[in-house]
Amino acid sequence: MAEEVSLPVGASQFTSIPQVRSGQPAAEAAVAGRISAAILDSLVLTAVYGVICAVLHWQFFALSHQLVALGLNIAYYFVLESRDGQTIGKRANGVCVVALDGSPPSPKAIAIRSVLRVIDYLPLWYASGLINMVRTGPERRQRIGDFAAETKVIAVEGRSLTRGTAGWVLPTVTLLAFLVSVLYIVAIVNAGNQPLTPAQGLAFIQGCERTSNGVINCDCLLDRLQADGYNTLNSLNGLMQQVRSEEFANQTGSARTEVTNAALACRQSITPPPQVPPGGG
After folding, report:
1. Nearest partner of 111 among 69, 141, 142, 150, judged by Cα
2. What is the distance, to the nearest Å, from the Cα of residue 141 to the centroid of all Cα atoms in its chain?
3. Total structural domains within the chain
4. Mutual angle of helices 66-84 and 31-56, in 10-degree steps
């Protein structure tokens, strides 16, 4: 039997929720609408962030600006869902956030589910959140943020209410997100085990030049380290991490010895500026 849930006061134009006509629990019926809503909300957020980048002349994918994108994401969901349980995407797809007992979610609950959305998204495509939705069953279908906040998303109107969600949708989308995430992780690991690209080599040399004050020929240093087998990004980063660990422990281990010997071999003399004799012109 379909469940009846009281709609939060002020949520959309509704004052009560009719039974889901598909016969599914309201949380199960909302699954397809939630997925569509997530896509639409992502497009809205991407557009807004793109405008910000254009106005401020930021690079869209710059790591230093991703905190702004993250803050924008959290603020968007918190502000809209605190108002009536619906974002632009949720309203368009006829789904709404409620507390587990059907009452309006508290601002604290919305804050929790908004912040934890970052965890739900990992590694890609909301894979973690989708897996938790499968785990929590058709009566709740909670992602990690919902589970922590004691909320759920239910169908309230439109297609979500009248037709619900086909049984294959959630397992298929979850499997797809899981496979894409695995491939993404494998690609990252393999990329780190490939020979250094020219851009990666240049980044190492520039970092070396900033810290060596011209004492070391950084092109030479990179060549020697690569000749000794440190020719991938992972191996080079691992070597530098081990050097920092040995320095912190005030120890001279294999990594510190390797870099020190290479640096000594690439040491370059710095010719001091010519001295002008007193009174010279």
Report:
1. 150
2. 22
3. 2
4. 130
Residue 14 has, within 13 A of its CA and on its CB side, a CA count of 22
- Residue found by looking up tokens 């851009």 in the block: 199
Provide the terminal-to-terminal Cα distance of the chain, rounded to the nearest Å.
101
Q: Contact, 43 vs 116, CB < 8 A? A: no
Entry pTM: 0.74
Can you give the residue range of the structural domain that contains 88?
26-189
pLDDT tens for 6-36 read: 454 444 444 455 568 778 999 999 999 999 9
> β-strand 151-155 against 95-99: which pairing, if any?
antiparallel
Q: What is the amino acid identity at position 64?
A: S
28 within 8 A of 138, measured Cβ to Cβ: yes
Shared domain check, 57 and 37: yes
Backbone angles phi, psi at 166, to 5 degrees: -60, 145
Instruction: With respect to residue 137, please indicate whether it lies within any of the assigned structural domains.
Output: yes
- Domain end, chosen from 168, 189, 210, is at 189
In Å, how far are 28, 114, 161 from 83, measured between CA atoms? 23, 13, 21
Low-confidence ranges of the chain (pLDDT < 70): 1-19, 269-281
**What is residue 266's predicted lDDT score, i.e. its pLDDT?**
93
Q: How many CB atoms lie within 10 A of CB 209?
A: 15
